[in-house]
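ok, trying the design again with the full structure, not the truncated one.
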C-alpha cells in the first residue's frame, strides 16, 4: 500500500508491503528497507536495510479499552476511533431519539454521537479529551 507521510513539513511517498506477520518491506523515496515491528513499546527494529539513514520513525499511540463496561440501559457506542471533544449532555438528562449526546473528532472531522432512543442518560463513561476505539461504549440511556 502507498501512503503520503509528512515529516518536519516535507512530504514523502511511502510504500509498505507486509512480507510476513510483523515484517515489512518499506520504500521511501526509492530507498528500501526491511523492518520488523515488535510490541515492546512500539519499537521498530531494522532487520535489513539498503540505506543507513532512518527510513521511517514509527510512533504508536495506544488506546486503553475497558474490558468490561457496566451500566444500566441501552449502550451508546462510537462507530470509529477518535477523541471525545465535547460532552453535550449530563447523567440524568432527558434525551430524545437522535438527539446529540457528545462530539467525537475523527480524521479532523466532528461527528455527533446521538441517543438511539428516547429516555434518560443513566451513565456517561467518557470525558472530553478521552480517546476511544471503534465500538467502544461511551454512555447508557434508559
Amino acid at each position: 500500500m502507498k501512503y503520503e507521510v509528512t515529516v518536519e513539513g516535507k512530504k514523502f511517498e511511502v510504500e509498505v508491503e507486509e512480507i510476513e506477520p510483523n515484517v515489512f518491506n518499506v520504500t521511501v523515496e526509492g530507498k528500501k528497507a526491511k523492518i520488523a515491528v515488535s510490541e515492546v513499546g512500539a519499537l521498530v527494529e531494522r532487520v535489513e536495510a539498503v540505506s543507513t539513514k532512518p527510513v521511517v520513525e514509527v510512533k504508536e499511540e495506544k488506546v486503553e479499552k475497558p474490558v468490561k463496561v457496566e451500566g444500566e440501559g441501552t449502550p451508546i457506542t462510537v462507530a470509529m476511533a477518535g477523541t471525545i471533544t465535547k460532552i453535550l449532555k449530563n447523567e440524568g438528562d432527558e434525551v430524545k431519539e437522535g438527539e446529540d449526546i457528545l462530539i467525537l473528532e475523527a480524521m479532523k472531522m466532528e461527528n455527533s454521537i446521538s441517543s438511539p432512543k428516547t429516555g434518560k442518560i443513566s451513565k456517561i463513561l467518557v470525558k472530553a479529551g478521552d480517546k476511544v476505539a471503534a465500538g467502544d461504549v461511551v454512555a447508557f440511556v434508559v
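Keeping the full-length input from now on. The chain is about 0% helix and 50% strand.
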